[in-house]
Design brief:
Elements lengths: L25 H10 L7 E5 L5 H7 L7 E6 L2 H13 L6 E5 L12 E7 L8 H11 E13 L16 H20 L11 H7 L3 E7 L13 H15 L7 H10 L4 H23 L10 E8 L2
Parallel strand pairs: 1-2, 1-4, 2-3, 4-5
Antiparallel strand pairs: 5-7, 6-7
Helix pairs in contact: 5-8, 5-9
The protein binds S-adenosylmethionine.
């Protein structure tokens, strides 16, 4: 299960690998579909659709006939989403096109469900995007956003990191937090925007705002022999081979400075997280790594009055 999108240049390419297929338990999403009355939905818009993972997953929980539109600002992903839908027998239901989330190419009140997943973490002005999603949902319709708090993962420990000195754990968390702050300040998105999404939905006038947490984790436990675990290890080694931590070294440096980090600290912090990555790679190789793979992924819903 390789990352077929790895060599493509768009900024999200590295996150379209096989692991994205294991983000959700389908029965959990079925429960959410019941709670939010998906059976009444006749039309869906997936904003920032990428190659279509999220909308096409939700399509499994919707009645048979709803139309599924998807938009992305990047024509390359629109093409890939169209091909992926066809390959999954969803071609007749799905229509993908180019549009920015800040200015959706649809009339007011066009859809029963307007949704996004890991889109708001990428945008400069998430409130403006939520307002636009609210504009195109019909009265009584649903806005549903699946967005993470990524900084929390810095304190989810595993068999290797639980033995580290507190200062080393905190050094990596501090680097990540400063970078998240800097990235947001540069207008490149807040990687932990999920915390703020319930308030953003309420501020855009949506009512009955509900907040759920994805119940799925991605544990990695020897002998790492499931398809899900193999996909995770492939993604790790893919990122390592490109000298990625969470971001490339250049982006990490840019974000760190923009977040208020001191230039003379950077090399030491980068060396710390690189050494920590090497330690994990070695522990996986000798089967001494195990961890819960927990993260915070919110599912936030609101209705247009
Ligand atoms: C991390 S991917 C998520 C893709 C998809 N929602 C999923 O869950 O698999 C983010 C996507 O949002 C798109 N994107 C980022 N900013 C955008 C914007 N302002 N307008 C439209 N699309 C945007 C990117 O091109 C990328 O495909």
């Amino acid at each position: 299960m390789t990352n077929q999108y790895r060599t493509q240049t768009s900024h999200s390419a590295e996150y379209f690998g096989g692991t994205r297929d294991y983000w959700w338990n389908i029965d959990f999403l079925g429960l959410i579909a019941d709670r939010l009355s998906f059976k009444q939905i006749g039309s869906v818009l997936d904003v920032g659709c990428g190659v279509g993972h999220w909308g096409q997953l939700l399509a499994r929980l919707l009645p048979q006939d709803p139309r599924l539109d998807g938009v992305d600002r990047d024509p390359h992903w629109v093409e890939q989403a169209t091909a992926r839908a066809a390959a999954r027998g969803l071609g007749h239901r799905c229509s993908y096109s180019v549009s920015t989330a800040e200015r959706l190419r649809f009339e007011d009140a066009s859809f029963d469900l307007v949704t996004c997943q890991t889109l708001l973490i990428h945008v400069a002005d998430p409130a403006a995007v939520v307002a636009e999603m609210t504009r195109v949902v019909r009265p009584g319709g649903l806005v549903l956003a699946s967005e993470p708090n990524n900084i929390s993962s810095a304190l989810v420990l595993n068999s290797v990191s639980s033995g580290r000195l507190p200062d080393d754990i905190l050094a990596a968390a501090r680097l990540q937090l400063l970078c998240e702050r800097g990235k947001a300040a540069l207008g490149e998105g807040n990687n932990s925007i999920g915390d703020l999404v319930p308030g953003l939905l309420a501020a855009s006038g949506l009512v009955d705002v509900r907040v759920y947490l994805n119940d799925k984790t991605n544990p990695l436990i020897p002998p790492y022999d499931t398809a899900e675990q193999r996909a995770m290890l492939e993604e790790w080694s893919d990122m390592k081979s490109r000298d990625f931590w969470i971001w490339s070294r250049d982006d990490t440096y840019r974000f760190f400075l923009a977040g208020g980090g001191r230039e003379d600290e950077f090399d030491r912090l980068w060396a710390t997280v690189t050494a920590q990555g090497d330690e994990l790679t070695k522990a996986v190789a000798d089967r001494s790594y195990w961890g819960p793979g927990a993260s915070i992924q919110y599912l936030v819903a609101g209705r247009r009055a």
